[in-house]
Specification:
Blueprint lengths: L3 E3 L4 E4 L3 H12 L4 E4 L20 E2 L4 H5 L6 H10 L2 H9 L5 E3 L4 E4 L4 H14 L3 E3 L6 E5 L2 E6 L3 E3 L3 E4 L14 H9 L3 E7 L3 E3 L11 E11 L2 E12 L3 E3 L1 H4 L2 H10 L2 E6 L6 H14 L5 H4 L12 H4 L14 H12 L1 E8 L7 E6 L4 E2 L4 E2 L5 E3 L13 H16 L2
Parallel strand pairs: 1-10, 2-3, 2-11, 3-7, 11-22
Antiparallel strand pairs: 4-6, 5-6, 8-9, 9-10, 12-19, 13-16, 13-18, 14-15, 14-17, 15-16, 17-18, 20-21
Helix pairs in contact: 1-5, 1-13, 9-12
The protein binds flavin-adenine dinucleotide.
Length: 417
Amino acid sequence: MVKKVTQNVDVVVIGGGASGMMAAGRAAAQGKRVVILEKNNALGEKLKITGGGRCNITNAEFDTKKLLSHYGDAEKFLYSPFSVFGVKDTFNFFESRNLPLMIEDGNRAFPKSEKAMDVFLVLEEYIKNNNVEVHFKSVVDTILCKGGNIQEVETKTHIFYPEKVIVATGGISHPETGSTGDGFRWLKNIGHTVVDPTPDIVPLSLKEQWIKKVSGVALDDVKITFYCRDKKQFIKKGRVLCTHFGISGPMILNSASKVRDLLHDGVVTAHIDLFPSVDIGTLEKQFIDLFDENKNKMLKNILPKIVPPGFMAAFENIFPDIDMDVKVHSLKKEERKKIVHTLKSLEVTVTGLMGLDRAVVSDGGVALKEIDMKTMQSKKCENLYVTGDLLHISRPSGGYSLQLCWTTGYIAGSSVM
Ligand SMILES: Cc1cc2nc3c(=O)[nH]c(=O)nc-3n(C[C@H](O)[C@H](O)[C@H](O)COP(=O)(O)OP(=O)(O)OC[C@H]3O[C@@H](n4cnc5c(N)ncnc54)[C@H](O)[C@@H]3O)c2cc1C
């Protein structure tokens, strides 16, 4: 098949996700002729599922030093780009386009409409208003680098000869959204160091099969202590979401990389304290009082007054030796103690981290020292720019990933002049 040659393009942006759309819109707003090549038949597929469909658009920490302290080793590289486009600029960008934002706990910012789709629509309008051309179902298979410059970008049907190329193909988490790691391959071939991507910010899988029975149940305000080879390692507090295969929720997602390291050393267990605000004696007293008031009722009908109701579905498995149909007055003292002690320290065994299909981001990516962070320009290839999840920047959940997309996308788009 003869490929169609397209010459009259200034900038090709490969990948129309969060950072690609920002970069394309910004470059076009400055008068560049910009084309987005997107393998899907829609833009922003991952963006549309962010934050459970609500889109945690950024982290509203306006003190740049404090904000950047969450980006680990990448902190020192990020001062320069964030001084040009930081969190305040993200607020201005979206709010000035009729998308008011609100701030929740942990400084997590969301659109007031609580719709990720609305975030997408702002970006879609941004690129439309600036006449960015979008080629859907356009899978880039090759970018040809010669003499330190990208000469060609090829899809199955087209060859482009742009002046500048922005690679915004994302990481490899949730590959069904289109990010399948193509950019990592090209950048490696060009000579970049690419730290192998592994799942990060990812749920944990558990050995205990009872977790399936409570899939969907949220345990609010619990304390979880992680052990490796029976030695206490670290403690987290917050919300745990039970899933079909294990546990999730922001606190768990943010523990994933530490747990991964521990798993190399041996068996990892987690002890969940469902009542961290009371000591064991107080909790026991609460149970005694409750049982005294309800002597003739069945245990299974009384426990939901104290225990998260949905969690009861797993009790027969967690307490195989205790009859849940027993009248409370017949419950033995040791049985009551066992219930109280277990709820203060419910032990589960972590079998691993879930895969890339369930990860929020993939860790790994292009080494930052090989990118000019003032421009997002590759130091290996002069007319190449790299954005978003392709960069090797570890960060927790809480809006930090998308903020990187807005910042790096904006900077790349500004720099292709
Ligand atoms: C379930 C989930 C929830 C999340 N929630 C949040 C959140 O609330 N807040 C937050 O900050 N972060 C969140 N993230 C992370 C955030 O979504 C990503 O950091 C962000 O989308 C990355 O944007 P990107 O532009 O780098 O790449 P992507 O959004 O992955 O876009 C890459 C694009 O490139 C295209 N592409 C890939 N290869 C090719 C090719 N060869 N040719 C043409 N096109 C190609 C893809 O189809 C895709 O459209 C979440 C992630 C997931 C998976």
